[in-house]
Amino acid sequence: MRKAIGLLVNPIAGMGGAVGLSGTDGKLEEALRRGAVPRAAARAVEALSRLGGEEIHWYTAAAPMGEDVLAAAGIDRFTVLYRPASPTTAADTKAACRAFLDAGVDLILFCGGDGTARDVFDAVGRSVPILGIPAGVKMYSAVFAVNPAAAAELLRLAGEIPCRDSEVMDVDEEAYRSGRLAARLYGYACVPYIPERTQGGKQVFEEQDEERAKDAIAAFIAEIMLPDTLYIIGAGSTTARIMERLGLTPTLLGVDVVRNGEVLARNADEWTLFALLERYPRAKIIVSPIGAQGFVLGRGNQQISPAVLRRAGLSNLIVVATPGKLQATPVLYVDTGDPALDREVGETLLVVSGYRLGQRKRVVHAD
């Protein structure tokens, strides 16, 4: 059955991640100053290149908001309905989506992060299904595929698989950059759903037992830390507790670097991490999955890039999470932007869940 699909790409989505900005909204000039490079187009092409043989007519926006991506993926059956300003803005996203709606599309496929999801939802509400190709820094909304390959699979089956009501989250960017997660439910969108292909929304765990578990994990990690070893400590409240156990102040939503009890970098970007690894090659990386979503890498910690992971070695990756979080997280995901590296993670990961306690969790590879 021939489908009509609207394609929208936010060309600046995700540019703040690797440079440690915790988001790009309102920070494009600063991201560019720090050496950020676009990533949304490559993520979109990765998905679209799997759909060239499908019976789809695409409707899109001009230039970097969709037209260029379709051409790069080798797709020529498309109609440009909207021409954005330069640089593009949220108003362009909304206007393009309203044009798609007027054209009678069956679904809107967008590439971006939570801010893009909110703008798409603002324009179309529940009048048409939407689906996100993840390309932002943080993606707490449940409207995204787990990675570009999964987005292609979901789109291919759209109309044959059920849609579910999925949360669109409104995340306060300024609060996030200052180390505080302030998110509220913005609305429910209709999203094609296959288990382990469509991501869940983030959950926050604050029960008393969870706090004790964080303390136990921190005590164990502090006990096994090696001298003269670089520790790259990712975002999250569980990893923050490790820093606090060491008597250090954490960057709750950033990446810190510690060696011999001394902080070498706070809220480090990708280049800082790689430079420190060049100087101190003996290293460990400590991360915690996003609650309920299960993403270990690729959501909120893009500073820990494929280059950084390869330099440190995947064997030196330590995953920590409380039992409560793991109970609500049936599987784990990795989405570094390098599918070959993602596969090297393997089929399972051992997760430290207490003092000398661990659980082995299955890793899903959606390709």
TrEMBL record:
<keyword id="KW-0418">Kinase</keyword>
<protein>
    <submittedName>
        <fullName>Predicted polyphosphate-or ATP-dependent NAD kinase</fullName>
    </submittedName>
</protein>
<dbReference type="InterPro" id="IPR002504">
    <property type="entry name" value="NADK"/>
</dbReference>
<keyword id="KW-0808">Transferase</keyword>
<dbReference type="InterPro" id="IPR017438">
    <property type="entry name" value="ATP-NAD_kinase_N"/>
</dbReference>
<dbReference type="Pfam" id="PF01513">
    <property type="entry name" value="NAD_kinase"/>
</dbReference>
<dbReference type="GO" id="GO:0006741">
    <property type="term" value="P:NADP+ biosynthetic process"/>
</dbReference>
<dbReference type="InterPro" id="IPR011386">
    <property type="entry name" value="Put_ATP-NAD_kin"/>
</dbReference>
<dbReference type="InterPro" id="IPR039065">
    <property type="entry name" value="AcoX-like"/>
</dbReference>
<dbReference type="Pfam" id="PF20143">
    <property type="entry name" value="NAD_kinase_C"/>
</dbReference>
<dbReference type="InterPro" id="IPR016064">
    <property type="entry name" value="NAD/diacylglycerol_kinase_sf"/>
</dbReference>
<dbReference type="GO" id="GO:0003951">
    <property type="term" value="F:NAD+ kinase activity"/>
</dbReference>
